Every structure is written in structure tokens, then in C-alpha cells.
Amino acid sequence: MTNMKEFRNKQMKKAMQALRKDENPITIENMKNVLVTTRLLVPAQWDKEPKMVNKQTVFDPDTQFQLMVITDKEGNCYYPMFTDMDELLKWDTERNVQSLVLTFDQYVPFIEMSKDSIYGIVINPYSESIPLSCQYILDMQKERMENLTKDSIEDDSDLRDPVANITDMKNCLCALGEKYTEIQSIYVKERLVKNQPSHWFVVVDMNPENPKLFQILGEACRSVSKGKGIEFLFGNTPLGKQIMANNEPVYKAV
């Protein structure tokens, strides 16, 4: 887990200030790009205390998370998000709140689940105060997924072995592989996409195939994904078979 005190999203702070100074198509698009490629400090609660592993905070795969909510004068509810601890402390003056540093892909599932009960998110509510509705965020995600589909790969030329140490993520995937008996094996690569941050490309061989498990795996691994998104693929696909034939699994059922 990122050190909360040291976390500072200068890119988002700068983009928001530019937007407030002059809202135009360029500043709007820039803020959207920063939103999907950087992380934010998000107040949250969880039902299981994390453990320290190699000086890193690691949550158990089945930990349940809940994002905290703020209400405006009109009674609209938002998930508050912050660019740094100084901004968060303008709200949490008594320093009672715990937080997570999340990517766009990591907090979108919370927005999807809460779209009927909250209005959206608000970034730095006590300074720049940029509110974004749930529908706006979900439309952004839909556009991103469509772009990824258009940029789909048919071979492994855009994939590489992970450069960073992903031991915690591997351990998380192994624990889930043991829990869900339909999972036969799991492979992890890093996908490079032009003009976008890289993300993890996870091939899961399972029988029977269950797409819902991809969501479960993604949710469970979000705290150990090093801020990257995760793309899943069934092993029983041409590319999946190719990757399985040429790489060692991070998990294999006994």
C-alpha cells in the first residue's frame, strides 16, 4: 500500500486548477486523461485488518471494502476523493479516517454498484471541488473499454513479463485459485498499449468458464496491483492457449 502521508497527485491538482481557471474542451479532456491514468486518495472502511508483508500492507483476498460518503447542501451523496493528504485533512480534521490509494479502474466498480444511491464522486471538495456524476464516470469507462476492444491483440507481441515485483499479486491469485475449484491455472503478463499506461494481462484457464470470476479476481487483487488495471482472458481462446503454451503459470491446480 502506498504511504498515505507521502502520496501526492500533482498532475490531477494541476489539471483541476487549469479547469477551474478556464473550462474549455482542452482542459476538460486533459483532466479526464489524468483521471484515468493516475490515482486518488479515497476514504474507506474494511472488515479485516491488513498484514505487513515485506514492509508492505497487504489485504486478505476476501476483505470487504466500503468507500465513505459525503453529502452536499442539496442532499446529494458523493464519494469524496483527494489528490493528497493535505486536501483530505480539510475534511477529516480530527484525523479519524482511513484511506486507500486507488486507480480509476479500482474505484469504478464501487460507482457501478452505488449508481442508484449516490450522485457520483467529488475531487478535493474543499478546494477545487470537481463533482463528476456516476453516469459521467461510467460513460468514460465504457469509452475506455471500447478503445481497448478496438486495440485488441491477436498475438502476444504487445505483452511482456512483468517488470515490477508482483509477489503479492501472485500470492493473491494463488489463494483465489485454491478457493475456486473451477480455476485450473493462472498466467500473468504485462500489456503495453500505445498512449496508455500498461496494465496486467491475466489468462485464467477454468472449467467451467465463469465470467463473474474475473470480477472477483479483479476486486480481490486491486490492493496489490501496484495501481495498474487488470485485463482478463479465458485460457480456452487462441491467444490464451498461446500464452499458456509459452509461459509458466503463477498458479496451477494440484
Architecture blueprint of SSEs:
Blueprint: H1 10-21, H2 25-37, E1 39-46, E2 51-53, E3 56-58, E4 65-67, E5 70-71, E6 77-81, H3 85-89, E7 99-103, H4 104-114, E8 120-123, E9 130-133, H5 134-150, E10 159-160, H6 167-179, E11 183-191, E12 199-206, H7 212-221, E13 230-234, H8 238-246, E14 251-252
Give an overview in words.
It contains 8 helices and 14 strands. With 254 residues, it is an alpha+beta fold. The protein folds into 2 domains: 10-149, no CATH class; 159-252, GMP Synthetase, Chain A, domain 3, CATH 3.30.300. Strands 10, 11, 12, 13 and 14 form a 5-stranded mixed sheet that branches. Strand 11 (183-191) and strand 12 form a beta hairpin. The model has no long low-confidence stretch (mean pLDDT 87).
Classify the helix fraction into a percent range: 25-40%
Strand content: 15-25%
Largest sheet: 5 strands, mixed
Quote the distance from N terminus to C terminus.
31 Å
* Number of strand elements: 14
Number of domains: 2
Overall 3D geometry?
Answer: globular
Calculate the mean pLDDT score and round it: 87
Number of helices: 8
**Class from helix and strand fractions:** alpha+beta
Low-confidence stretches: none
Q: Which series of helices and strands comes N to C?
A: HHEEEEEEHEHEEHEHEEHEHE
Return Rg in Å.
19 Å
